[in-house]
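Subject: mismatched residue count in predicted assembly?

I count 1218 residues in my input, but I want to confirm that the predicted structure covers every chain. Input:
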Amino acid sequence: MKTVDVLLKNARVLTMDEQMNQYEAGAVAVVGDRIFAVGPESEITQEYAGIETIDARGKLLMPGLVNAHTHVPMTLMRGLADDLRLDVWLLGYMMPVEREFVSPEFVRLGTLLGCAELIRSGVTCFNDMYYFEEVVPAVAAHAPYTCTAEILQETARVAMEFDVPLHIHLAETSYEVENMRRENGFPVVPYVKKQGLLEAKVIAAHCVHIDTGEMRTLLHAGAGVAHNPSSNLKLASGFAPVMKMLETGIQVGIGTDGPASNNDLDMFEELRLTAFVAKAVSNEPTSLPASLALTMATRMGAHALHLGKITGSLTPGLRADLILVDISGVHNSPSFTRSRDNLYAQIVYAGKSTDVSDVMVNGKWLMRDRQLLSLDEDALIRQAAEIARRVDSFLIEREQSVLSKLVALGGSMEQESFEVQVKVKVTDAHAIREALTRPEIEVVRYRHYDQHDSYFTFEDPLQGRLRYREDDFLDETGNVTMTRPRLTHLGQQREDAFAHNILLSRSRFLAAATQSLRFYREYFRPKAEGTVEKDRERWLVRFKDTEFFVNVDRMIEPSLGLFVEIKSRTWSRKDAEHKAILTNELLAVLGIANSETVTEDYFEVAKAK
Amino acid sequence: MKTVDVLLKNARVLTMDEQMNQYEAGAVAVVGDRIFAVGPESEITQEYAGIETIDARGKLLMPGLVNAHTHVPMTLMRGLADDLRLDVWLLGYMMPVEREFVSPEFVRLGTLLGCAELIRSGVTCFNDMYYFEEVVPAVAAHAPYTCTAEILQETARVAMEFDVPLHIHLAETSYEVENMRRENGFPVVPYVKKQGLLEAKVIAAHCVHIDTGEMRTLLHAGAGVAHNPSSNLKLASGFAPVMKMLETGIQVGIGTDGPASNNDLDMFEELRLTAFVAKAVSNEPTSLPASLALTMATRMGAHALHLGKITGSLTPGLRADLILVDISGVHNSPSFTRSRDNLYAQIVYAGKSTDVSDVMVNGKWLMRDRQLLSLDEDALIRQAAEIARRVDSFLIEREQSVLSKLVALGGSMEQESFEVQVKVKVTDAHAIREALTRPEIEVVRYRHYDQHDSYFTFEDPLQGRLRYREDDFLDETGNVTMTRPRLTHLGQQREDAFAHNILLSRSRFLAAATQSLRFYREYFRPKAEGTVEKDRERWLVRFKDTEFFVNVDRMIEPSLGLFVEIKSRTWSRKDAEHKAILTNELLAVLGIANSETVTEDYFEVAKAK
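Triage response: the counts match. Full output below for your records.
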């Protein structure tokens, strides 16, 4: 009789091995960090004696679950912002908070908190992606749409040099795929293949929008896929073609994705959703049965992570990564034994993560009788609560003003700009164009464009207005040659006024609009929105050694007629007074000194109409 | 200071009332079975003293969840059969087991087991449909496709007479809707309206396949809808148009459906799925935010059940149906307070049913600190296990033979039929037709049809074969006038043989095939399947005072040529011997006495090829 370190007996054993062996009365022997023997209780207990013997009291004994894709430190942002589109959620909330808070300590705390949750829910192996993960032996590039080709190439080189997996998001949204096609002429998988990425051991997360050709490419590259049903549903990323990937022969694991987009790390939920969604999408309730879902979350998941020779099933020689699950609770009673499938269905369709009572990783107990042995859960929860309090304060302060929300988006610069300006109503554009050819005026530059403005206004008028402008540049024949979107935060008040309604105005924020109008609308949640469209001819002229912009604007929407604007940047009170005088002189040269001046901007004129 | 029965304080109160009031430090006063006061803790504790005072220790205090559609006694069939199509699951497993086991005692035990689970998961109100529910004050007709028009009409009459809700499944599958359109010419909602059903207070479960016109009809009838996301996904019934129903103004509640198709009664899962699926289907992550999902599972759910004036929110005057939820667990940490939406998101996206710690219904505690006060959970689980053991035995025995599985489907009859028969290979169909006009032969009936046969064979040859046959009856011009599907269980062995290869065969089972070929394939799970197609002309003739069938078969698939079969029913050894002699005489009259005889049936001939 051989002595082993741990002998688990009196268990219903689900091996999840290649033969899907089950032992209704089974036992498992563990030596060191490995599984040594698995089989019927009568055989195993006859051959082995355990230094430690565990009576599983009829609980289910199975391999620990493999969480194939997550961002564990994001536990600290769980429930921070929900029911938002991916870009608003990511650029408007996650990234600003990350810029402000993420540090090695933050990552460590979030990881430990996540590990507590993962252990409690029976996960013994997870594949992570986040900041400050230098100590984790895998390379992760976020996604093709956030990394340059050079980064992707270098990532593959490093992963191959150290022979570690390469973790990346691929084809998560249709938007990503459309952009990739537009910018590079082909879909996501061929693109990353071109960057040499598929020469590494790739773990591709999501793969929601890939076609059968891309699936074959992934298969031939030996890449694993991590399917994330909760996240794909919650962020409305789409329905991943899981059945097709499986039929193609790809190893597909299941992941929770990060707890900020889920909002937890519960693999039991993902198991159930993997089966549910496959059935619903294929309109076929026999699709992806419980046994296959559980295989994906164990043995196949390990293969998807290129760890199939290390973990994923109760097989002698593999790591002792195993869990006990109590399926005797009222929500999982009664229990049928007619078919081998009954037990898989119990776990997948009625099991809860809270049914997991004991967890062993590498032969070491991490949880016994629902008590965590390696983590101080209460301390972690307390520390996380303190982080949450600080994040709340940060966001509450930021969201007090439109300007601070704008600054928080990052990637754009605050810029104060004072202008002397005047606007007059005119009737004859041709006369203005003629006047601009006069010798005292030197034309430095001429442009012609259609200008589409959207104005956001807010409950509190002190917040000012936000203008999203798209300039469509036109060539001589009226064709659009380029579109430039810009965002401007307009202060509410005029700073000063000079003679003849010449104004001194201040723009507090001016930046390239890197996101869509829809993004800004959802992020800023304006009280109201107005639009203005005009045809603008713009001359940059030099007049008496001073540069002015002269705009001839034909208002299209609303249809307000013709206006001339004269503007010049200024930097001091004295300079502004001087330029106000020159502006009056320029009006005279253009023959419109006596025209009616308009002090409101077009948006206000439009509203007044 | 007024004395109340129960004062709950130190709680984060989510009222779910019309104003969605929240009290970060809140309290609730209960008098008798009613909520008496709700508000900030400082106010409530100043005005009221409780005979019983509960310190909620920062837990969430909210209305109990409303499970808008379920079949609670089916807890006893939880996990019995999964990953099957609705018809196979229902007709192949649920109904046979129900026919065998369902009794008032079965229903009572299943209901109590279900109540234990419902209480544990925070449900304080549920809408049930099952057998033996005479004591429950609501009327339930299963569905338009299982009830006659008269039953629907009578159901509505009874519901109106007693002023109680009328619970019914409507438009759950596209198949139901297609059948309804084909048989009655319009969709499901107009059909039940025509039966007077909508004059009652209808609770319509599922409504997966209804159009905007039907939604308006339901709205105008004041009908409530019960949405069942898990069941709709698992059975692949489709994606219910929940957002459109809500936009139409219909009161939509959320239900678990029965635990045999879910496989539990966990409203927290349904909450999450309601939000998830709406986002995924609309391709819009802002769809159906957490606050709306929780409203559907509380106040709106109560309205959908026509109980909106009784329960569904923490509002003075309504029943004291409330729960405490501990959201301090590691899977729900940390907690943000920046927005009122954070708390809804915590419950919907990260909450678990096991977070519910205390449940009060009608002012009475049913669970305190996760201990059930009104039910003996262990005894229920033991009794349920005993039922499961008996159901397992019943199904295991039944599934031992193809014949017993066939009998278990019900609605079809076992029938022994002995036939004397001979089959010969011929070349000239015209000569046979001519011979059949001879005076010694009287033609009683003539038919012409295409015959499509599918043969199922099984691992164990003693199980015999199962034949699914569709006869397409043809008129003189070759048009199909009718299709008749039949199912025949063919015994494996020839019973006897006479001279000239005239056989005595036995069909052990013959019945109308009321289900599709696909249904039988999935239910019987044959080892292999073969198909045979032939053009058959069939004469019923009288020859020497004895009836014979004469078939002239042109084999189409496989292409085997022309055969003549002569058959006659028999009932005794002596009669069989007599008919064997007559059969030989008839062969001679038809001029094919010397043709090659074939002893295999067409399926075997086809296989031999």
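The CA atoms of residues 366 and 374 of chain B lie 6 Å apart. Marking this ticket as 'not a bug'.
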